[in-house]
Design brief:
165 residues, mainly alpha, 70% helix
Length: 165
């Protein structure tokens, strides 16, 4: 007789069914064979049987009268799909997101319009701004009768302080 042969993990899982007589015959024969040959396996079965008997001594818990109806109600609630549209916060959130999306779209359109107007549409005053030094010195140019005289004044640096304004 082998004293150290133990039940394997599957057989240990089936011990409760074995003690209750709920196992198929072939599995019962396997466990009986191991238990008859091994003291260790027999001890495992005896410990579980004593534990099972001790459970019978404990007072049994009584369920309340409405336990079944509450349990079924909870199960039905768990089976029902979760619908966001039925939540109290869904309609205000949807409205807020919609308003925020419209505001963002308006801001983006305004920014695009500003950029197009600033960069793509020619400014009619740009040419005047480029000619500003000439316009500022127009009186001096009109007093001069010859172009050579103006070129000589420019070479002498007369107009440099006017451009630095």
């Amino acid at each position: 007789m082998e004293k150290t042969v133990r039940l394997n993990a599957d057989q240990r899982e089936d011990l409760v069914a074995y003690l209750d007589g709920e196992l198929p015959d072939d599995q019962v024969r396997q466990i009986d064979t191991i238990v008859s040959r091994s003291e260790v396996a027999r001890h495992e079965v005896e410990v579980l049987a004593r534990t099972w008997e001790m459970l019978d001594v404990l007072p049994s818990a009584k369920a309340s009268n409405d336990f079944a109806s509450r349990t079924m109600t909870n199960l039905k609630a768990l089976e029902a799909p979760y619908v966001f549209a039925n939540q109290w916060w869904y309609a205000p959130l949807k409205r807020t997101i919609s308003i925020a999306a419209w505001l963002a779209a308006l801001l983006i359109c305004g920014w695009i319009g500003f950029e197009v107007a600033k960069n793509r549409i020619p400014n009619p005053h740009e040419e005047l701004l480029q000619d500003l030094p000439l316009i500022e010195n127009l009186d001096s140019y009109q007093e001069a009768r010859e172009l050579d005289f103006i070129i000589q004044l420019k070479q002498n640096g007369l107009f440099d302080d006017a451009q630095g304004k």
